[in-house]
Amino acid sequence: MEAFETIAVKRKKKGVFNLLGRVMLGLVGLFGLMLAAILILTIIGIIPGMAFMASSMLFVGIAFLDMQEVRCPHCHKKAGVHKKAEDFECKRCKRTTIIDWE
Ligand SMILES: [Zn+2]
To answer: What secondary structure letter does DSSP report for 67?
Structure first.
């Protein structure tokens, strides 16, 4: 068994966006997803539709996920983690770090 490193992270009270901003962003994202779906259904619009869908999903993701940035203690790469996550796996060094929320 590998021993996991634990880092203490202060939970930020507010994300990048306040509630109103997140709702707006979520609505824009959902609207974008619908438009993208229509574009993809027309076949001709499949390529812009796909690009549109990807950016809309990003919008929805930002709106609904409560993310915070932490730094990997092994390789110091920044990683975004959900505020309810108990641990994360670093994308660069693949090591798992346990988060001790303060
Ligand atoms: Zn790392």
So the answer is: E
CA of 76 from ligand 1 middle (Å) equals 6
Q: How far apart are CA 40 and CA 34, in angstroms?
A: 10
| C-alpha 64 – ligand 1 centre gap (Å) | 26
Residues across the chain: 102
pLDDT of residue 17: 62
Both structure tokens of 75: 């390789």
pLDDT along the chain (102 residues), means of 10: 82 71 88 95 93 90 81 92 90 94 88
